[in-house]
Amino acid sequence: MNTTWLEHYRSTYYELLSPEVSGAKRLLVEGIYKRAIGFDIMFRLLLNQRRENFSIIETGTLRTPGNWKDGQSAALFTEFVDWHGGQMRSVDIDPEAVAAARGYITSDKFSVACSDSVAWLESLDDLNQVDLYYLDSWDVKWDNDTDSANHHLKEFIAIEPYLKSGCVVAIDDNSRWYANNRRTGKGRAIVEYLEAKGHFPIYDEYQIIFQF
To answer: Nearest CA to 187 among 169, 168, 173?
Structure first.
């Protein structure tokens, strides 16, 4: 394989993951749906540790194949483990989303469960072996992020005792209000929780990324 994964990712997906969508009509700062740099950082953090056999878990799964405003993360992570080995596991409470992901992603390295994400995470016995958690389940309402932010915090608390050294945790769908720069989104409660412990994100844009 002459082309590296990062070269392939950048040439194939950067433009798709950088849509020109304004946040103005939502009264948000610019940058919504822009994930190209965030995924690049995640892949580099993983590959800086080793070159093969990665365990990735995603909450919330691919719902609409080809809708790049959604990020298509399940497909991207599966393609990554197809290149470098490992497994990509996803969970979603919506059976239609689960069926869509299963129908679109045919790799034997991908699996998706239909369940509440917190309950599913708590049922797993290998959380201490996971290299990347991508938290992207409960849809966010920008003007009232409480339900989504609190659910993602519950996901994080479920995995927190098992985070191994070097583990990456990323949360999708985050922004700030243009008027006052106040944070809103899926990761808000996690950021507040971890900042109180003195742990800050290494990347803080539409995706928020921590490394432990």
So the answer is: 173
User: Locate tokens 């700030």: which residue?
Assistant: 176
pLDDT the model gives residue 2: 75
Q: Residues 92-142: pLDDT tens digits?
A: 999 999 999 999 999 999 999 999 999 999 999 999 999 999 999 999 999
